[in-house]
């Protein structure tokens, strides 16, 4: 395990234990000292040891056994050519990238990471809300919740949407297991095999996988710096007569673009003429200014389904998202949710409601936006020094969409860099036409200051 540049005490401890496992000092099956014993022997806090054990557990090197402690579960392999070959053979497909995003690899620089750094989110202090949730709703720990989701959280979301000038009653809001389940519910309700669905191109790649599973014909609407290409959108509406258009108006993933007010108005005009429902994914809402134009604000949920999430601002592990739409459609979608998942987690929903109802949450999102502003500035400078072409220079965005000089196919560049411990998110993955080469990559601004990227590029060159 290679140390990260900014090494914490927990990182160093995890690296040291990993080295002992690799050298056989701690053989497979052996028991580690207890957290208390290790803390006393190392002269550090228990929390430091817990964090180190968490890193090793996430990497599959140790495993907890109830009532017995932690045990070594496998050896560290210094090099594993078979695993590396199979990784490349997967051709950086959608499922591969999703798997990579869900793994914690301290020795790898993941520039394609989809989330803010953990340390940016830690100030939400999830641990301090547990007792409050248990005290006020212990019964929720032992039963299914409402098909709509926890009522007080839906009331809190009513206020959140009002901040975007979207009027929605609690009966128009359905809580979900994150934004991805919300999209899945919409697809199950609207899409039959063979139906054409419009999406942003480039756009949110897990959505493409869901649509392929449903048997949909996916047509990508090219993304301009100010939103979807209206000429192509109108052409596709006439040619394919789709019922749905999935788009992101604010901080679009992966291009970091925002849809202009003029284009948002035109999209709604076309939706009215062609009987189109616009599904607006606003998963990055807490990281961007409230004043930006949202299609649902202009439409007031007549022809729009608004999808929100807290994975980027609170925790992806809570798995709480929501959708808002017309009341009768919301009822139908709540039934779809009930048939496929019975209910969402009321415990998680109570926890999220306690967080966003706290005055600290607004300060937290303000801090997040400040950190993002500084990181974006650093990232733009880093890419500029490398001669990169940035699709849209943003002053505050989790992602930048950019191409590097001399690499017309970012997939090949990604395959080369992975051998040097750097993971990219190549552009082809973000297009429904994934067989076509793209020079662009999605970069997470929080990690572009890491010098390993420039060093790996030099090695590849």
**CATH 2nd-level architecture of the largest domain:** 3-Layer(aba) Sandwich
Helix content: 40-55%
- Strand fraction equals 5-15%
Taking all residues together, what is the mean pLDDT?
Answer: 87
The shape is globular
Specify the structural class: alpha/beta
Strand order in space, largest sheet: 4-11-10-9-8-5-6-7
In the CATH scheme, what's the topology name of the largest domain? Answer: Aspartate Aminotransferase, domain 2
Task: List low-pLDDT spans.
Answer: 1-6, 78-92
Going by CATH, the homologous superfamily of the largest domain would be: Type I PLP-dependent aspartate aminotransferase-like (Major domain)
Strand segment count: 16
Could you tell me how far the N terminus lies from the C terminus, measured between alpha carbons in angstroms?
25 Å
Please tell me the total number of domains.
Answer: 3
Number of helices: 18
CATH classification class of the largest domain: Alpha Beta
- What summary fits the major beta sheet? 8 strands, mixed
Computed over alpha carbons, the radius of gyration is 23 Å
Question: Can you tell me about this structure?
Answer:
Keywords: DNA-binding, Pyridoxal phosphate, Transcription, Transcription regulation. In the C-terminal section; belongs to the class-I pyridoxal-phosphate-dependent aminotransferase family. With 461 residues, the chain is of the alpha/beta class. The protein has 3 domains: 9-72, Winged helix-like DNA-binding domain superfamily/Winged helix DNA-binding domain (Arc Repressor Mutant, subunit A), CATH 1.10.10; 81-122 and 363-460, Alpha-Beta Complex (Aspartate Aminotransferase, domain 1), CATH 3.90.1150.10; 127-358, Type I PLP-dependent aspartate aminotransferase-like (Major domain) (Aspartate Aminotransferase, domain 2, 3-Layer(aba) Sandwich), CATH 3.40.640. 43% of the residues lie in helices and 14% in strands. The protein has an 8-stranded mixed β-sheet, with helices on both faces. The chain has a 4-stranded antiparallel β-sheet with strand order 12-13-16-15, with helices on one face. The model is unreliable at 1-6 and 78-92 (pLDDT under 50).
């Amino acid at each position: 395990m290679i140390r990260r540049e900014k090494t914490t005490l927990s990182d160093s401890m995890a690296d040291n234990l990993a080295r002992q496992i690799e050298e056989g000092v701690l053989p497979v099956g052996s028991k580690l000292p207890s957290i208390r014993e290790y803390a006393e022997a190392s002269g550090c806090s228990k929390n430091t040891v817990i964090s180190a054990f968490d890193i090793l557990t996430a990497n599959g090197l140790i495993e907890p056994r109830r009532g017995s402690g932690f045990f070594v579960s496998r050896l560290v392999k210094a090099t594993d050519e078979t695993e590396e070959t199979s990784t490349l053979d997967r051709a950086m497909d959608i499922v591969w990238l999703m798997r990579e995003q869900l793994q914690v690899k301290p020795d790898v620089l993941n520039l394609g990471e989809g989330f803010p750094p953990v340390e940016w989110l830690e100030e939400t202090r999830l641990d301090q809300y547990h007792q409050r949730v248990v005290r006020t709703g212990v019964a929720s720990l032992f039963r299914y919740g409402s098909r709509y989701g926890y009522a007080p959280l839906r009331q809190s979301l009513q206020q959140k949407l009002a901040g975007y000038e979207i009027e929605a009653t609690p009966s128009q809001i359905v809580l979900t297991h994150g934004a991805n389940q919300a999209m899945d519910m919409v697809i199950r309700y609207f899409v039959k095999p063979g139906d054409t669905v419009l999406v942003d191109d480039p756009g949110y790649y897990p959505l493409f996988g869901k649509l392929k599973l449903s048997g949909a014909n996916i047509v990508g609407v090219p993304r301009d710096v100010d939103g979807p290409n209206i000429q192509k959108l109108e052409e596709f509406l006439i040619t394919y007569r789709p019922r749905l258009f999935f788009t992101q108006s604010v901080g679009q993933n992966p291009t970091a673009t925002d849809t202009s007010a003029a284009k948002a108005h035109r999209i709604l005009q076309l939706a009215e003429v062609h009987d189109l429902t616009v599904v607006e994914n606003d998963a990055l809402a807490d990281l961007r200014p409230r004043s930006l134009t949202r299609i649902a604000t202009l439409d007031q949920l007549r022809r729009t389904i608004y999808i929100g999430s807290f994975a980027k601002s609170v925790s992806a592990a809570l798995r709480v998202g929501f959708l808002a739409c017309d009341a009768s459609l919301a009822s139908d979608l709540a039934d779809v949710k009930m048939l496929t998942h019975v209910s969402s987690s009321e415990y998680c929903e109570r926890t999220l409601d306690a967080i966003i109802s706290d005055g600290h949450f607004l300060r937290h999102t303000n801090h997040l936006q400040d950190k993002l502003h500084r990181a974006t500035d650093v990232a733009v400078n880093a890419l500029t020094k490398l001669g990169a072409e940035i699709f849209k220079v943003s002053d505050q965005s989790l992602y930048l969409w950019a191409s590097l000089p001399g690499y017309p196919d970012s997939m090949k560049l990604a395959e080369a860099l992975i051998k040097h411990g750097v993971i990219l998110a190549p552009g082809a993955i973000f297009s429904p036409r994934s067989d076509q080469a793209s020079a662009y990559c999605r970069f997470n601004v929080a990690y572009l200051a890491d010098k390993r990227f420039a060093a790996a590029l030099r090695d590849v060159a």
